[in-house]
Amino acid sequence: MLEKLISEATEYEFKRQLEIKEPTSWLKSVSAFANGLGGSIYFGIDDNTDVFGIADIKKDSDHISRLIKERISPLPEFKLTAHRMDDGKEILVLQVSRGEITPYYCLSKGATTAYVRIGIESNPASPQRLNELCGEE
Hints:
Elements: E1 12-15, H1 24-35, E2 39-43, H2 57-71, E3 72-73, E4 78-84, E5 90-96, E6 105-108, E7 111-118, E8 121-124, H3 127-133
Parallel strand pairs: 1-2
Antiparallel strand pairs: 2-5, 3-6, 4-5, 6-7, 7-8
């Protein structure tokens, strides 16, 4: 699985750990993936593809599901999968499907923002891109 992943790309990114206090760091990517072609976030792996693992898969899975339900609107289709690596460490993979009901917004600190992927980053959608996501020309 990971031997093919060399670095972050448009369709996937890595997070060394699950940010719960500042979840916008990864929730904006959920919005961007749903507003684009879909994608995956690998929790427990850093940007250099070093595996650190997740200490409590069940607890972090629950947090991810809850935060997506609370802070992404409309709710995108997503799948969480736990994987045990060769060294015994466990990681979580969050797969976000391409959305059918764009735009998908991330709610954070009182702001509602739709994100899109530009290269390896999730950025706020420009007004023109937001109009495209809304089906306006």
